[in-house]
Specification:
By secondary structure, this protein is α/β, with parallel strands linked by helices. The chain folds into 3 domains: 12-98, Rossmann fold, CATH 3.40.50; 102-320, Mur-like, catalytic domain (UDP-N-acetylmuramoyl-L-alanine:D-glutamate ligase); 329-468, Mur ligase, C-terminal domain (Protein-Tyrosine Phosphatase, Chain A). It has helices at 20-31, 43-51, 85-93, 100-107, 124-137, 170-175, 194-197, 200-208, 226-236, 291-306, 311-320, 348-355, 394-401, 413-425, 449-461, and strands at residues 12-16, 35-39, 55-56, 69-72, 97-98, 114-119, 142-146, 163-167, 183-186, 218-222, 245-249, 259-264, 267-272, 275-281, 329-334, 337-341, 361-366, 368-369, 384-390, 407-411, 433-436, 440-441, 466-468. Strands 7-8-6-9-10-11-12-13-14 form a 9-stranded mixed β-sheet, with helices on both faces. The protein has a 7-stranded mixed β-sheet with strand order 20-19-17-21-16-15-23, sandwiched between helices. β10 (218-222), α9 and β11 (245-249) form a beta-alpha-beta unit. α5 (124-137) crosses α10, α5 crosses α11 and α14 crosses α15 (449-461). The longest helix has 16 residues, at 291-306.
Length: 469
């Protein structure tokens, strides 16, 4: 059953942006007794909304209907690089501007549901899915949504004692008027979306809002960047050591008083006042290999522990976690050869994390290269036994690999998989991995990275002796 938005009965609420989240919040407002007024820059979206019985209006130009609030989809810029003209008009009319995340936190008050919210630059989706999986395996009724999977108002009405695990982007956090999670997670911060936030400071400020408006009961803060250390220090003000703030690192054990979690060399360790209190070896967690996934696991350990899940239950959940499709996803093996689908690696930052995870790699790469090519991956060339190149910029990638990596110009995914599987099977001196981690966009050959990953999976399924995971 849908979660209705109450408190706006008989009032008009404007909705700007009619993609997934906009339509879902329109239905939730209507279910709660409000009259949504829908607006989008796309004529076809407006026509479809009208055909479904919604009131539509050009809120930038039409006579302004009396609105209690304007709800804006996350893809619509509200400040930088320039505020949308409907938002500017709302400011002039004195109409509060919000988004579906702010409405969601309003709507769940009194339901008895608990919320874990995850943000950061890298690893949000995997951490969100992992927390949802661990909680579900531990017997807690759990839904996962937000920036991953289902929009918040596509979720079922949460029951008392249940959990809602939300991935939240900086876009979603920045505009929400209400943010009150029980547990909030800050993973890391690297430069991204700077045009939308007016620079790195604005980007960090958007992320940090998750921890400011409602001050979560527990904050899990990655402290491997200065912004995280600043945030953790600020949140500890006025609290006893160890109360409400869990520091988390993927690079070192954290001393000092209070609770912390680290992830080094494939082991997640919990520390209390500098002494080890629990540990989980990730060797059995096939979908959580690599330093970046160790950080995700450390954050999940802290968040799930804050929900009362035992370390043994968390370990079992880690080991049974299937991973997210197209993100360092183990899909099976043929003899000793493992096949990993990392089609989501559309840039060199993401591909670097994959290449750093394995020692002997038969690498499938290529597509539409980003600015700068793949030169950033040079430190990992020694791990690549052979590269199988596909797509528009295969020649550019081959030029960068030069004499350091043997190159096969495969052209197509089917050809690349068959060549890589054959060569890896003949490699008797290693534990070989056929890795699709393209370091490029997919649009030259596929509609999106998901389609590319599914093509890889289909090609691997035809390899002799393949056994799906």
């Amino acid at each position: 059953m849908m979660l209705p938005v109450r408190g706006y009965e008989g009032q008009r609420v404007g909705i700007l942006g009619l993609a997934r989240s906009g339509l879902a919040v329109a239905a939730a407002l209507k279910a709660g007794g409000a009259e949504p007024v829908l607006c989008d820059d796309r004529a076809d979206a407006m026509e479809q909304a009208a055909a479904e019985g919604y009131t539509t209006a050009d809120l930038a130009n039409d006579d302004w209907p009396p609105l209690a609030k304007l709800v804006v989809s996350p893809g619509v810029p509200h400040l930088y690089p320039a505020p949308h003209r409907v938002i500017q008009r709302a400011w002039g009319e004195g109409v509060p501007v919000d988004n579906d995340i702010g409405l969601f936190f309003e709507a769940i008050v009194g339901t008895g549901a608990r919320v874990i919210a995850i943000t950061g630059t890298n690893g949000k989706s995997t951490t969100t899915a992992l927390i949802g999986h661990v909680l579900g395996q531990a017997g807690i009724a759990t839904q996962v949504g937000g920036n991953i999977g289902r929009a918040v108002f596509d979720l079922d009405q949460p029951a008392e004692g249940s959990a809602v695990v939300l991935e939240l982007s900086s876009y979603q956090i920045d505009l929400a008027r209400t943010l009150n999670p029980d547990v909030a997670v800050f993973l890391n911060l690297t430069a991204d979306h700077l045009d939308r936030h007016g620079g790195m400071g604005g980007y960090f400020a958007a992320k940090a809002r998750l921890f400011g408006t409602g001050r979560p009961r527990v904050s899990v803060i990655g402290v491997d960047e200065p912004e995280g250390r600043f945030l953790a220090n600020r949140l500890r003000a006025g609290r006893d050591p160890g109360e409400g703030v869990i520091a988390m690192s993927a690079t070192r054990a954290l001393g000092g008083r209070g609770l912390s979690v680290s992830a080094r060399d494939g082991v997640v360790t919990q520390w209390v006042d500098g002494a080890e209190s629990a540990r989980i070896d990730l060797g059995g967690a096939i979908a959580l290999q690599g330093e970046h996934n160790a950080q995700n696991a450390a954050a999940a350990f802290a968040a799930c522990g804050a929900f009362g899940v035992s370390s043994n239950e968390i370990a079992a959940g880690f080991n049974s976690f299937p991973g997210l499709a197209h993100r360092m996803q183990p899909i099976g093996s043929a003899g000793r050869v493992r096949f990993i689908n990392d089609s989501k690696a559309t840039n060199t930052d993401a591909a670097a994390r994959a290449l750093a995870t394995f020692e002997r790699i038969y690498w499938i790469a290529g597509g539409q290269a980003k600015e700068g090519g793949i030169d950033q991956l040079r430190p990992y060339f020694a791990r690549i036994a052979r590269a199988y190149l596909i797509g528009e910029d295969a020649a550019l990638i081959a030029e960068t690999l030069g004499q350091e990596v043997e190159v096969v110009m495969s052209g197509t995914m089917q050809q690349a998989v068959m060549q890589a599987a054959t060569d890896a099977a003949a490699d008797t001196d290693s534990d070989p991995v056929v890795l699709l981690s393209p370091a490029c966009a997919s649009f030259d050959q596929y509609p999106d990275f998901e389609a590319r990953g599914e093509d890889f999976r289909a090609a691997v399924a035809r390899v002799d002796g393949f056994v799906a995971r």
